Amino acid sequence: MGCDSTITTTLIVDSAYLTSSPVAICQGDSLQLPGGAYTGIAGIFTDSFSTVSGCDSVFITTLTVDTAFDAAITPVNAICANTGILMLTAADGGGAWSGTGITNADSGYFDPSLAGAGTHEIIYTIGGSCGDSDTINISVYEVPSLSLWALDESCEGENDGSVELTVTGGAIPYTYLWNDVGSSTTQDLAALNPGGYTVIVTDSNSCEITDNIVILASSTKCFTPYVYVPNVFSPNGDGENDKLYVQGKGIEEMTFIIYDRWGEKIFETNDLTNGWNGLFKGKPMNEAVFVYYLKAAFNDESIVEKKGNLTLVR
Questions:
Q1: Does residue 72 form part of some domain?
Q2: At residue 184, does pLDDT exceed 70?
Q3: Edge-first strand listing for the sheet containing 56-66
Q4: Residue scoring higher pLDDT (33 or 313)
Q5: How far apart are CA 311 and CA 314, in angstroms?
Q6: Which residue has the higher pLDDT, 241 or 15?
Q7: For the chain, is the Cβ count within 10 Å smaller at the N or the C terminus?
């Protein structure tokens, strides 16, 4: 009939959805993406969906994979308290150490002498979201304790010093090793020359301790210096008492002179090993009584002068 028909369209434009999300995981872990897939690889992942109105909904995931640290501590066997400082180690560095006996948290120095005997818990921790921690126990053995007592040489040249050793602590039985001539393995020593002596004591845990002591030399003489002249001798060639010797101990110097009854010098010596054989000018003397003079200087700085008679018999 020629009439107009008008159609009116109302267009609504909905916004598209875009979501961006940074995510970090540790090495060895995985992440479920918005689309349902799992991944453990670093990268940028896009997942697209449609809204109820038919518009796009886009999820962008930026995935970072951080290094996962391993704090596993290297095992430590039981040690003696005097072993010395140890440097503890772990699979990965960069962590902090703690526990009794730790002297440096960064380097992991462990001092068994500071920790003392017993079992000690040591903790190692690596911080951060991908950090780790580990714990071990370190056993420290007590070390034996030594006490030495010395008996010095009683008199000069006697070589009769001795050492008594007392051992406490540690774990029995003990073994001993001395540095004397025979490398003695006894607890105590006797009949020792003056000087220094060292002993190593080892207990049943193989913990060793060393100590030493000195035996002092004596300047006291082991005898009282004396001099003696026999009053008779018989130079008859029978092999007995054929020579007249000055006898004694501690004699440093001496002068020994024999005179006949008229005052003529028959014999003289300054040597203890030189005795009179009853001869004068190569000829045997007759039986008679003779006079001697003796002057002796001893090692204690004393001096003795003596005069006396001696008889020559055949």
A1: no
A2: yes
A3: 17-26, 56-66, 43-50
A4: 313
A5: 10
A6: 241
A7: N
For range 271-294, the mean pLDDT: 96
Q: What does pLDDT average to over the chain?
A: 92
DSSP letters for 55-123 = -EEEEEEEEEEEPPP--PBPP---EETTS--EE--BSS-S-EEESTTEEETTTTEE-HHHH-SEEEEEE
CA distance 200 to 184: 11
Neighbouring residues of 306: CB distance < 8 A, sequence distance ≥ 6: 227, 229, 292, 293, 294, 295, 296
How many domains is the chain partitioned into structurally?
A: 4
Question: How many angstroms separate the CA atoms of 288 and 79, rounded?
Answer: 87
Q: Is residue 6 part of a domain?
A: no
Over residues 101-117, the pLDDT tens digits come to 999 999 999 999 999 99
> 301 φ, ψ to 5°?
75, 10
User: Is the residue at 260 inside a domain?
Assistant: yes
Strand partners, 49: 57
What's the DSSP call for residue 250? S
> Tell me, what DSSP letter sits at residue 244?
B
Q: pTM score, two decimals?
A: 0.65
Query: DSSP alpha helices (H): ranges in the chain?
Result: 112-115
Same domain, residue pair 186 and 260: no
Model confidence pLDDT, tens digit, residues 26-37:
888 888 888 889
Q: Which residue has the tokens 């190593």?
A: 200
Asked if residue 154 belongs to a domain, the reply is: yes
How far, rounded to the nearest angstrom, does the alpha carbon of residue 124 sit from its chain's CA centroid?
30
